[in-house]
Amino acid sequence: MTASTPKSNHDAIADNTLDASMPRHPESRLQSEWLFLYDKLPPDQWFSNDYVYKTSFWLSIHADIRKRQHVLIQISDAYHAGDIEWLEYRSQISSRINQYIFKLHQHHNIEDTGYFPQFMRMYPQLKAGFEILDRDHVHLDTLLNELQVLNSRLASSNTEDKALVEQLHQRLMDASELLSQHLTDEEDLVIPILGLN
Ligand SMILES: [Fe+2]
Ligand SMILES: [Fe+2]
Q1: Which ligand is nearest to the CA of 138?
Q2: What does the pLDDT read at residue 7?
Q3: With CB atoms 3.0 to 4.6 Å apart as the test, which of 20, 66, 187, 196 could cross-link to 42 if both were Cys?
Q4: Quick one: where's region Disordered (predicted)?
Q5: Nearest bound ligand to the CA of residue 190
Q6: 76-125 pLDDT per residue, tens
Q7: In this structure, which residues have their CB less than 5 angstroms from ion ligand 1?
Q8: How confident is the model at residue 194 (pLDDT cuts 50, 70, 90)?
Q9: Residues in the 5 Å CB sphere of ion ligand 2
């Protein structure tokens, strides 16, 4: 993870760097007129007793996704740094990539078919915001499909293939960059809806 990676909710709350009136990602795509709920329920209240029972399930799924992503990049970095050998790299990363892809597809499917349509019916004025998140899912699907193809090649590669590792690393970084913005924008839109309803 780079120094510019957005802080987790807990970290940001812990060191008081959140500005409650602003979306948190430095390149947030949320328009100010979509933040009327965010302004009523800013992130420093998401884990308070009044709201945590309604918000934590969503935030914990996102925390799990961020953690999985972090571990994958750590393994990739360890191989690049020469800390682990090819066979250990392959055995550590291959099944974790499959689980990461599975979890993301599962989560996006529930959002696309259940939650997002429901939220748009509740708040039609937020439709354009959810359309951004929908497009992210389509873009992520493409990246995850590419990652799956590369990971299948990895599973059957018995000899060291540095070019393949490089391609995998690049796809992981691409997915990580898009997800860091997607998850944060999504939380700023969705968590206040969950908390206030
Ligand atoms: Fe999403
Ligand atoms: Fe999500």
Answers
A1: 1
A2: 38
A3: 20
A4: 1-24
A5: 2
A6: 999 999 999 999 999 999 999 999 999 999 999 999 999 999 999 999 99
A7: 111, 186
A8: very high
A9: 186
Sign of the Cα pseudo-torsion (156, 162, 167, 173, in order): positive
Going from the Cα of 158 to the center of ligand 1, the distance in angstroms, rounded, reads 35
pLDDT (tens digit, 9 = 90+) per residue, 8-30? 444 443 344 445 556 678 889 99
Instruction: Please name the residues in contact with 63: beta carbons below 8 A apart, sequence gap of 6 or more.
Output: 8, 9
CA of 96 to the centre of ligand 2 (A): 19
CATH assignment of 41-196? 1.20.120.520
Question: Distance between CA atoms of 40 and 84, rounded to whole angstroms?
Answer: 48
C-alpha to C-alpha distance for 189 and 193, rounded to whole angstroms: 7
Helices (H), the chain: 9-14, 36-40, 52-80, 86-110, 116-122, 127-155, 162-196
CA 53 – ligand 1 centroid, Å: 20
Report CA(179)–ligand 2 centroid distance (Å).
9
Distance 88 CA to ligand 1 centre (A): 32
Cα distance between residue 192 and residue 197, in whole Å: 8
